[in-house]
Amino acid sequence: xxxxxxxxxxxxxxxxxxxMTSCRKDTAxxxxxxxxxxxxxxxxxxxxxxxxxxGVEAQLSAEGTISRGHSLFEYENSIxxxxxxxxxxxxxxxxxQVNLDxxxxxxDIYCGICHGVKGDxxxxxxxxxxxxxxxxxxxxxxxINEGSIYHTIYYGKNAMGSYANLLNEKERWEVVSYVLKLxxxxxx
Amino acid sequence: xxxxxxxxxxxxxxCLGLIILLAFSTSLSAQEGDPATGKTLFNxxxxxxxxxxxxxTGPALRDVEARLANDQGLDKAWIYAWIRNSAGVIKSGDAYxxxxxxxxxxxxxxxxxxxxxxxxxxxxxYTAEVKAExxxxxxxxxxxxxxxSGISNELILGALAILxxxxxxxxxxxxxxxxxxAAAKDIDxxxxxxxxxxxxxxxxxxxxxxxxxxxxxxxxxxxxxxxxQIGVDQGxxxxxxxxxxxxxxxxxxxxxxxxxxxxxxxxxxxxxxSLNVCMNCHxxxxxxxxxxxxxxxxxxxxxxxxxxxxxxxxDDTAQQYTGDSQPVKWVRIHNLPDFVYFNHSQxxxxxxxxxxxxxxxxxxMEVVSQFAPxxxxxxxxxxxxxxxxxxxxxxYTKIHEELSxxxxxxxxxxxxxGGLECxxxxx
Lengths: 188, 427
Known about the structure:
The structure holds two protein chains of two kinds. Chain A is mainly alpha-helical. The longest helix of chain A has 20 residues, at 2-21. In chain A, helix 3 runs antiparallel to helix 7, helix 4 packs across helix 8 (169-187) and helix 7 (146-155) crosses helix 8 (169-187). Chain A contains eight helices and no strands. Chain B is mainly alpha-helical. Chain B has 20 helices and two strands. Chain B has helices at residues 2-32, 35-46, 64-72, 76-84, 86-91, 95-103, 117-127, 136-184, 197-203, 205-228, 246-252, 257-260, 275-282, 298-312, 344-350, 355-359, 376-385, 397-407, 415-419, 422-425, and strands at residues 314-315, 320-321. Chain B has a two-stranded antiparallel sheet with strand order 1-2. Chain B starts with a helix and ends with a helix. The model of chain B is unreliable at 1-7, 21-30 and 136-147 (pLDDT under 50). At the A-B interface, helix 1 and helix 4 of A face helix 2 and helix 13 of B.
């Protein structure tokens, strides 16, 4: 009986140890040694903040201002704006400023997933039937050109959203050049 | 000669028959259309703006032909004209055409002059198909597979438990029977005279000493281990306000990490995508159609998409933004202390390090957890072993060459470029 008791004691200790070690919750962060050196005093990019009315750090630029590195885009987000852009808008980059290798990388990340790496409207999401009806770039009814492509990247069109916040102005024009290249390849 | 005439006559007859047959067959298919071809055409041309049962950029198209005929009195000719050149129909002052044009915010439908009558008939045949009821079988099979996997696990565990119980019972019974035999045969079982194990232990001083040293070392080991893991969040797996499955998005659908985390290319922070990035796809994708499990059902995923719509202020039935949006309080997982500077663009764009090197196989994670310890030792190890990407960097070629000569190596590591200097990260 003596043995029995010590056995029970040992097993109780084991159970306690196991529960203690297995109790660390993965859904809560660990202890920190000196939290005051961990937490930032400055405003962090995606933090909450009482400095702004809606309580978040991420803000749109103030109305009537243009952020550094950005420029004014004068075409409206409308059918008329699209038509105007198609007619008048020309690339701000000349051919020496376009790095097509870089443009391909950007295109494959942001556009290729739907439009396909060849621009034939057969991206992975289309092949998996998640998003359908992506037109080919050489679609004669649409007859896209650099102005209309830029307008579409900037504002989106129909079910496509705007990519203005994912690509900066230079990158957008590079992608436009690459789309035109794909279009030319498709039309061959 | 007669025969020749006969021959001509018969060939004429044959030709006539062929023409009749062809005309008949085309008229047949013109009336009916092939739904399967129609589906392909629909998916390629129409599905960007139209769905069968749900309003998108354009109206829902289920049974459009019958609905137009019954409600508006518009025949197929109108549909042909509309599809080939809707702007022309609107301009001609067509009442219904103008009504639908204004109802959808003046968004002109792309003209499809390349679609033949036959193509349009095929598409109409596809839209006229009866809506398939949500397939109960699929759900059933899903739950079935889930159950079988659950059952198999439980079965194994149960079988093991029963096995152990049987073993214990068997041993006990054997012992009991042997004792009974001994009693029956009048054999005296030798009663061992035992000292308590504790007393024996205390009497043996060598054993006490060894145990004491062992215990001290062991506790030192555990205390050290505990102290060293303070502030390390490896495995941290918080619950996010909206369940976002990286497995589905980057694993199954192969969307590039940088599609959503776009600022990782160009800035210090990798960037939590603003909700408009989600809506780029989820305007069109309003339900989940992939694999499900017991924990993550279709209803669960659809509910999470609803949460996204609520946060982004998207009215899915009206297909427009309400303007009433809510910020989502995502929980940050990878968190460096404030006294360390880390820049994503330096690693992602300049060094060309794969996201997975530090973040682990995120594309397989249903719920993301912290993969790397993010300790300084971990950073330093990588800087010591990683070669600097010097290809295609003409500007620094000379410096790289001279540095390589100075260190007498072929390839420079990040550490040799100053990647171990304190001030690079702590300032």
